[in-house]
Amino acid sequence: MLVWSRSGRLIIWVIFALIFGVLFLAPLAVILLSSLADQWNGVLPNGLTTQHYADVAKGAAWNAVKASLVTGFAASALALVSGTWAALSLRLQGPPALKRLLGLLFFIPSAVPSVSVGLGLLVAFSHPPLLLN
After folding, report:
1. What band does 39 get if pLDDT is binned at 50, 70 and 90?
2. How do the domains of the chain map onto residue ranges?
């Protein structure tokens, strides 16, 4: 750190904790509170319940949760294996021009925000014959 005094470092850490709490923890706390809210018509919920979680744990909703988890874990495992393989092969062999081209191709998914891809899919599938919305 560039701050040398002990009190200066403490102030920097407090500012960081406040910013982190407001930007990251507060939205998560509101999501958790809204998932436990019985009804929310004012500033705070009228009551708390776990009925929403009980509804998800049974019936078709549970099948959807299981399918999402299986798909997510399978996609993560596939991305881990193929990404590791690609990184090692790019590092160890191949001409420099091919390394640059393949490196570009592998980094494009992380460079294009998911919102842009989602908007593109929404526009693409909003017209017949694939009207999905």
Report:
1. confident
2. 1-55
What was the pLDDT predicted at 119?
85
Q: What is the mean pLDDT of residues 22-51?
A: 88
Q: Are 106 and 83 in contact (CB under 8 A)?
A: yes
Angstrom CA distances, 22 to 12, 13, 27, 35, 102, stand at: 15, 14, 8, 19, 39
Is the pLDDT at 128 greater than 90? The verdict is: no
CB-based contacts of 103, cutoff 8 Å, min separation 6: 90
Please, which residues have CB within 8 angstroms of residue 126's CB and are 6 or more apart in sequence?
132, 133
Q: Per the structure block, which two tokens stand in for 101?
A: 């081209």
Q: What is the pTM of this model?
A: 0.53
DSSP state string for 15-81: HHHHHHIIIIIHHHHHHHHHHHBS---SSS-S-B-SHHHHHHTSTHHHHHHHHHHHHHHHHHHHHHH
